[in-house]
């Protein structure tokens, strides 16, 4: 995994790296590997994850085809207008 550091901005590079690792599932895998997982538990977990993925895919497909209503969009909070500028006289 590669991350470019621009203008010696390490904070931004770290944020990008964490986001990439999150998308790849590195943190989830590290958490799972902390303790031993029995093969039977692993099979049931993987099966439930596959079912969850299939349901999510089917739900998205049904929404696209118009069989299900789309979930309501989240309303963003309105921004307050900026304070008026005070000029010194």
UniProtKB/TrEMBL annotation:
Gene3D superfamilies (alphabetical): Ribosomal protein S8 (1.20.5.1150)
Biological processes per GO annotation: translation
Signal sequence, start to end: none
Source superkingdom: Bacteria
NCBIfam families tied to this protein: S21p
Stretch list, region Disordered: 31-89
Keywords: Ribonucleoprotein, Ribosomal protein
Family of this protein: Belongs to the bacterial ribosomal protein bS21 family.
A Gene Ontology term for the protein's cellular component: ribonucleoprotein complex
Basic and acidic residues bias locations: 31-52
Any GO MF annotation of the entry: structural constituent of ribosome
Descriptive protein name: Small ribosomal subunit protein bS21
Any Pfam family matching the protein: Ribosomal_S21
Organism field: Bradyrhizobium uaiense
């Amino acid at each position: 995994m590669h991350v470019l550091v621009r203008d010696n901005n390490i904070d931004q590079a770290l944020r990008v790296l964490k986001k990439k690792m999150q998308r790849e599932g590195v943190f989830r895998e590290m958490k799972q590997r902390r303790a031993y997982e029995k093969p039977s538990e692993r099979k049931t977990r993987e099966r439930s994850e596959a079912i969850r993925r299939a349901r999510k895919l089917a739900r998205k497909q049904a929404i696209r085809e118009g069989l299900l209503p789309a979930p309501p969009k989240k309303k963003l909070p309105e921004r307050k207008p900026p304070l008026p500028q005070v000029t010194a006289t």
